[in-house]
Structure prediction request, 65 residues.
Amino acid sequence: MNDFTLSKEQLEKYERWREAKPKEVYVGAVGGAYSFVFTPTGIGVIVVVKCADGTELDLTEWKYF
Prediction:
């Protein structure tokens, strides 16, 4: 079973990306501006963050594949 967590490096990369984005991202009345998508494969987990503004950030640690 996979545990869907972020490493320290992944979290830091996400936080830098998020802080660089404009603060005006509209997310509606309930929030939810960012979706984390974890895709398990036979050799590792692909991690992508999707923003409500249509942009994406690949957090996959490819060095471990």
Notes: The chain has a mean pLDDT of 88. The two ends are 18 Å apart (CA to CA). Strands lie at 34-40, 45-51, 56-58. Residues 14 and 64 are 19 Å apart (CA to CA).
